[in-house]
Amino acid sequence: MRRKIIAGNWKMNNNLKSTVELISEIINKMDNHLENTDVVVCPPFTSLETAVELTKNSKVRVGAQNMFYEKNGAFTGEVSAEMIKNIGCEYVIIGHSERRTIFGESNEWINKKIKKALEEGLKPIFCIGETLEERQNGTMEQVLKTQVFEGLSGVTESQMANIIIAYEPVWAIGTGVTASPEQADEAHKYVRNLVENLYNSSVAQELIIQYGGSMKPENAKELLSKPNIDGGLIGGASLKADSFLSIINASN
Ligand code: 13P
91, 40 in Cβ contact below 8 A? Predict the structure, then answer.
């Protein structure tokens, strides 16, 4: 059975003080008997080191929200995979739709980032998803296929054990509109098939595919009980300990 991963993508929210408060509350209230769920928080860069320190003796792991694919050098404003790994982070979100649309990240860049993250021993949470227009004009499958094939280009079979895919339909992010459990499960199944075509059935069956897009306590249980949904990448609802914890509990 695949493990479930519930990850909080805080986006550009929380300073150092509120990071300490939120993580402390999550740790204090978290059920420590969660057998099959891994919990990850992804604060902004400025809070990562503190988050790693705070979570050291807990079940919570820490991820960054982005990185650059070069090792070091004249890349003003960027942070490397090595820097993220060096402070004790285990995960890094790559290719979030906000990075793709607001910051113009291409599949080619995302692919370079994924390969660099893996090389440095980080686990990429590789985000994909279609826009509403793409879903409505029938190109959703082609879009997901291009994102998956180009994003994973050159990633080896053994490296796939360290990758998580997050299916985040763009129309469901921050909108309050959630994909129905059936819509999400169908998309996840399609993505799993793509990975089977690229690699083989055991890689596809072991791959963790999270759902993201207005996941909240009210809909988490139904989404997480679907056979192809292995967790959640949570935005808004990860910013309050109670709602994040209730999604974590719904995964067990
Ligand atoms: P919301 O949960 O706020 O819709 O955000 C989802 C998301 O983008 C997680 O990466």
Answer: yes
